[in-house]
Write a structure and sequence with these properties.
There is one protein chain. This protein is 22% helix and 30% strand. With 120 residues, it is an alpha+beta fold. Strands 1, 2, 3, 4, 5 and 6 form a six-stranded antiparallel β-sheet that branches. A hairpin with a 2-residue loop joins β3 and β4 (62-68).
């Protein structure tokens, strides 16, 4: 199995990552209690309820979604990495273009965190 890593956030504020070390970009990872396959299916079910989300890549421990904004059709890339040894889901949410996202990526990931609480 290839050992994936999440790309680092750019200097711009339109990115959050559980692997970032600076406060502008850092967010805590998700913890899961269920088997990885069950946790992943639960996470996918939650993400499927969010508007304009599309799963573009998946393997046993990785998910990559694209979220498209309603008005300007900007695309945000949201990636999830499952670390089964630590029962941790690392994630990165970043805008492909532009500079500021007005906190959209951080807000989306806090929404995901709230929606998956107790389900994974």
């Amino acid at each position: 199995m290839s050992h994936r890593t999440l790309p680092p956030c750019p200097p711009s504020p339109n990115c959050v990552s559980t692997q970032a070390t600076d406060t502008q970009h850092a967010v805590p990872p998700l913890q899961y209690k269920k088997a990885r396959v069950e946790a992943k299916e639960a996470l996918k079910a939650v993400l499927a309820t969010l508007s304009r989300s599309k799963l573009v890549e998946e393997d046993e421990s990785y998910l990559h979604y694209e979220f498209t904004s309603l008005l300007l059709r900007f695309v945000d890339d949201v990636e999830f990495l499952f670390d089964d040894a630590a029962k941790t889901i690392h994630f990165r949410s970043a805008s492909r273009t532009g500079y500021s996202d007005l906190g959209v990526n951080r807000q989306r990931m806090e929404q995901v965190r709230a929606l998956v609480a107790g389900k994974i």
